[in-house]
Amino acid sequence: MSNRYATIITDDDGREVVSAIGEFAGTAPYARHGRFEQVAAGVRIGMVRGGTVDAVGGFGFPSGALDGNGGGNSQGKAECLA
Predict the structure, then answer these.
(1) Per-residue pLDDT tens for 24-60?
(2) Can you tell me the distance from the alpha carbon of 21 to that of 16, in angstroms, rounded to the nearest whole number?
(3) How many C-beta atoms surround the C-beta of residue 56 within 10 A?
(4) DSSP states of the chain
(5) How many alpha carbons lie under 13 Å from residue 62 in its C-beta half-sphere?
(6) Percent of the chain surpassing pLDDT 70
(7) Burial class (CB in 10 A: 0-12, 13-18, 19+), 7
């Protein structure tokens, strides 16, 4: 039987973020960065603890993260300085 674990890191804003997910037999492996925590099926990379969008097992995406407004203006204008 395998257990599902996530690597949890703290971002610059102090939020706990899922940065990796894996399934391991037995206990959690040794964590070099962050910490491992057993998580429910459905928890995905990028979810934060207490996030409200698509919440599963105490993790979810922060509101506003999936509405297309988080990336800023992706269209730019190239100017030549010759």
Answers:
(1) 887 666 666 668 888 999 999 999 999 999 999 999 9
(2) 14
(3) 14
(4) -EEEEEEEEE-TTS-EEEEEEEEEESSPPPPSSSEEEE--TT--TT-EET--EEEETTEEEPTTTTSS-TT-----------
(5) 13
(6) 67
(7) buried
